[in-house]
Amino acid sequence: MKMTTLCYIEQNGRYLMLHRISKKNDINKNKWIGVGGHFEEGESPEECLLREVYEETGLTLTDYRFRGIVTFISLGHETEYMCLYTSSDFKGSMRECNEGKLEWIEKAKLNELDLWEGDKIFLKLLAEDAPFFSLKLIYKGDELKEAVLNGSIIV
User: 2-153, superfamily in CATH?
Assistant: First the structure.
């Protein structure tokens, strides 16, 4: 079982997105995602969130919201539980990321990017300011086979 965090940092109607183009063996290769990563031993979700955002961006979050839990199931990979956050307040200066290219993208243009199909679902939930949710995404390779929101199948 793998535990991760993912954060969409918001500023002026845009999200800070990471174009994953730098790592060789990257399940997210060429995809656009938020920032975050894997828990280290003993970390709480918030500690992981703050550390990963700082490591990838140079920014220190000063305000954030825990928005939901996303369960990823994919054949040949261990199950991943991702704590999903948004943030609209931070301090510090952005730096380059060794995992890809960071770019501020207008929220209205997110669906023009190469996103995972399941990410489009939770980005829509974030846009709708949905209450805390549980989303289970089942993939076969790059194809989303099923999505279950709060116990109900939606795809």
Answer: Nucleoside Triphosphate Pyrophosphohydrolase (3.90.79.10)
Q: What's the per-residue H, E or C state across the chain?
A: CEEEEEEEEEECCEEEEEECCCCCCCCCCCCEECEEEECCCCCCHHHHHHHHHHHHHCCEEEEEEEEEEEEEEECCCCCEEEEEEEEEEEECCCCCECCEEEEEEEHHHHHHCCCCHHHHHHHHHHHCCCCCEEEEEEEECCEEEEEEECCEECC
Q: What is the pLDDT of residue 26?
A: 67
pLDDT in tens, 48-100: 999 999 999 999 999 999 999 999 999 888 999 999 999 999 999 999 998 89
Give the span between the Cα atoms of 61 and 2, in whole angstroms: 23
